Amino acid sequence: MADSLPALVIGAGISGLACAHALRKSGIDAHVLEAAARAGGVLQSTRQDGFLLECGPQSFSGTAPLLQLCRELGIEMQLARAPERAPRFVLIDGELRPVPLSPVAFFASSFVGTGTKWAILRDIFGRTAPPASEESITDFVRRKFSAELLEKLVGPFVSGIYAGDPDKLSLSAAFPQLHEAEGLAGSVVRGTVRAAKRNKKAGQQRPALLNFQQGNGTLPGALAEKLGAALHLGARVTAIRCSTPSRFLVTASVNGSERSFATQNLILATPTDAAASLLSELTREFHTPLSGIEYAPVAVVSLGYRKSEVGRSLEGFGFLVPRSAGLQILGSVWNSSLFPGRAPDGHALLTSFVGGATNPAAARLSPDQLTALVHRELSPILKTSGAPVFSHTTVYERAIPQYNLGHATRVNTLGTIGAKFPGLFFAGNYLRGAAIGACVEQAQEVAAQVVRRLNP
Fold first, then answer.
1. Do 6 and 431 contact (CB within 8 A), yes or no?
2. Which pLDDT tens digit goes with each residue over 229-256?
3. Which of 358, 406, 356 has the alpha carbon at shortest distance from 136?
4. Strand order of the sheet with strand 424-426?
5. Is the pTM of this model over 0.85?
6. pLDDT of 170-226, one tens digit each?
7. Which of 248, 314, 429, 440 has minimal CB crowding within 10 Å?
8. Percentages helix, strand, coil for the chain, rounded to the nearest 5?
């Protein structure tokens, strides 16, 4: 006999948890099936040898929906805020150069040359229109600004967010605000300023950079606790079938025992490869759009040093690395400079990232090799005089979805096929943005659609 539920979520990453929480808050008895023994997906914090580590995202932007969720869960007072003016650095010619954080500082600095500054001025006072065809980030920056800006700032920035390849990433999919700014105002700068003014008038402040006092794992932990018995861990879905066009029968192995769930609203909150496999019995049509979304592999390497053995100041957010630097690390976050309690007294915690879309083989090195590689590349930059006293490595073969050229078409195709199965929904970081706040907002919108379907 199948358990009958009004809504069932598969996947207990941040998207699945947030969606189920929103549904239950609306009075709908939604349950979640998660194959792993813990909830949260890549949002995982751990303590070892006095260090508080993030095994996935190191921080998040405090968007309004995300802060409201924290208030609902009673964890708002546990938030930790990074220093607002913490400098960001880019490695240029072997030296860490601070990124100018204001227009005046940018034009007064030598961070970029005169040609790039003139290109930015042309954008401010001129007018252009985006091309009719989809444009990569590389093509956009070269068309509007310069190859220098791409190399020194935009490329490293893209690596920091998506671990992606700017030659392949779609501007309109990965950074829709920039695409829309040029389309509406004829200028990226003017359009961005107008949007900021509109947001300010609407009472929307620039999101702060946040974490929790006990790490990012606080958020999925609170959601899991709130869901209680409605969250089924160790529940591996083995089949999804349609008993009627709008009613789904889900079979799962729950801690070794087979269980069946019948629902009229099924939310897939898994990575795309898992979703394609699970939906194969409904139709093979889902395979093409889902498998077309690539993921970048990333190794997250955390190293602990004695502060006395780090010759460079660690005041700041950290640094990003242009491809021309010839290093394998994409960048480094200085955790203990941003949030309290990340390292024992007299020590510093630094988390670096290796791999990405442009260097996938590097993420497949062993933990010892990754530790040695990161230490070797950090040492001359930070002027370390001793070996790390602590190391921890987490490798994700499919870490971050790539919003590559054609992404919008793939997502639209997914929606068209899904419309053939009323009550089937998708939630995840491959749909509306990879950031935690974007995932929460998209998941809440899915929950709202389910609520409207059940209570028209």
1. no
2. 999 999 999 999 987 767 999 999 988 8
3. 406
4. 231-233, 30-34, 7-10, 266-268, 424-426
5. yes
6. 999 999 999 999 998 999 999 888 887 887 776 667 789 999 999 999 999 999 999
7. 314
8. 40, 25, 35
